[in-house]
Specification:
By secondary structure, the protein is α+β, with helices and mostly antiparallel strands. The protein contains five helices and four strands. Strand 2 and strand 3 form a beta hairpin. Helix 1 packs antiparallel against helix 4 and helix 2 runs parallel beside helix 4. The longest helix has 37 residues. The two termini are 27 Å apart. The relative contact order is 0.17.
């Protein structure tokens, strides 16, 4: 059993199993049983509550000030980051993992899928960055309403993607798995 699950990198699903890489021990792990994803329900609940609050706050005219909008953007950054970290830690704490049993041929195919998946995730991450920039620009220029919620959703997506998948570590992981394979 793994002691420090903070060193886990989620590699996603492959052939009906979810895989993780233990950075501490440099081994590929697979989930024995999938964890309960109940913590992800916090995202729509948080967005609903914030939309309800924003409707009331918007009627008061408090967003007329640019300083208030800047403070709110910074506040959303902090809240989104903390919520994403909490969701990722609660997900990882419930994982039951074992050493992967992929043979050499399956491992080679898994590495190929990781390369494709990394490109897809980096593309998705670029789209999320673009959405965040557009939302910040619109929000700071005075457009309110659902821009706020799109901004929050994009931030949560970005922070969860960064915390769970840790794409910066994938080249090392792919290289480590290739060494094991060949």
């Amino acid at each position: 059993m793994i002691k420090n699950k903070a060193k886990l990198v989620n590699l996603g699903a492959y052939k009906d199993k979810c895989y993780h890489f233990d950075f501490e021990n440099k081994i590929l792990l697979e989930e024995v049983t999938p964890p309960n994803y109940w913590s992800y329900i916090l995202v729509p609940i948080t967005i609903y509550i914030l939309r309800f609050l924003m409707t009331g706050i918007e009627k008061t005219g408090i967003f007329e000030s640019g300083n208030t909008r800047i403070f709110l953007v910074l506040f959303l950054l902090a809240i989104s980051y903390l919520l994403a970290q909490w969701i990722t830690k609660s997900y990882q704490s419930k994982l039951e993992l074992q050493r992967s049993a992929l043979d050499k041929h399956e491992l080679a195919n898994f590495v190929k899928s990781l390369r494709r998946r990394r490109i897809a995730f980096l593309t998705l991450k670029s789209v999320i960055y673009l959405a965040i920039l557009i939302c910040v620009w619109l929000f700071l220029s005075g457009v309110l309403g659902d821009i706020f919620l799109i901004f929050l959703g994009a931030l949560l997506s970005l922070f969860i993607l960064n915390a769970d998948y840790q794409l910066k570590k994938w080249p090392f992981i792919i290289q480590s798995l290739q060494k094991d394979n060949f």
